[in-house]
Amino acid sequence: MxxxxxxxxxxxxxxLVKKIMQSTxxxxxxxxLSCSKLSHSIDNPRFHFIEGDITIHKEWVDYxxxxxxxxxxLVAIATPxxxxxxxxQVFELGFEENLRIVRLCVKxxxxxxxxxxxxxxGMNSDPEFSEDxxxxxxxxxxxxxxxxxxxxxxxxxxxxxxxTEGKLDFTIFRPFNWxxxxxxxxxxxxxxxxxxxxQFIINIVMNEPIRLVDGxxxxxxxxxxxxxxxxxxxxxxNKKGLCRGEIFNIGNPHNECSMRDLAEILLALxxxxxxxxxxSVSASEIIEVSSDEYYGxxxxxxxxRKPSIKKAQKLLxxxxxxxxxxxxxxxxxxxxxxxxxxxxxxx
Length: 347
Fold this sequence. Notes:
alpha/beta, Rossmann fold, seven-stranded parallel β-sheet, NAD(P)-bd_dom_sf, Lipid_A_modif_metabolic_enz, Epimerase_deHydtase, NAD-dependent epimerase/dehydratase
């Protein structure tokens, strides 16, 4: 099997390549702006990497969509700070470029595994979000926070429409707050534009305040990356064709916690970390800020985001195994080591 991964150096892409190289005989063709996270696979003869931009290297992308069996476009901007500051960039990359990839898959008759997002459910009040029955509930247009979710939702609908007309073989998957080593770049966290777990960790190791937006009562379900990748591998393999035309939530409903609890758990883990005796007492304090102050007027939050994973359990036999504290500890370990290497740890 030949697999094309666009955005292969990202958090999901690099882990997926590593798993494929370790456990299968599949070939992977990948493109990204760098290969900084791919040292584990870059020399493998079954991994073919090109440094490039899908918005520029369009002929390369076209040729490899035609050449490969499964297409996985992982290119998007997935940090809330960017939704507010650069909404058009989020739309142009996340929607327009991905729509081009979808249409190439239609043109060449290729199977696409499309990464949607848990954010498409928006402010839905269901206790658990179902892929097939839960409504999408977004705020007003002036709240630009929703441009990412809207773009993903529309692509989901376009893909579904192509599928119902018999023009596209697809599976859509929705990651729910995947975490783990290499989650974000530390420099992005220093600039305040990373995902929440990375942001809290870099605040802690640099002895900066942890800022809880609007009190930190918002809840999320955190999923360890290896659990998520295991599910993706089952989707790629697609035994008996059970994944065709399906949408899967990939998350861990048992790993739910509030942002305040997340900050407190990470602080406790850091202070007890076996490799950070010299830094065992973080001076970080937890403070509250308004969403307008932290993100700007275009932000609107989601109080809870818990997946139903009954479909993945039934069709794929998949269940997440890594608990919340273990997932956070593994993520923290990586960032402590990287921070130490870059001289960022504060005594």
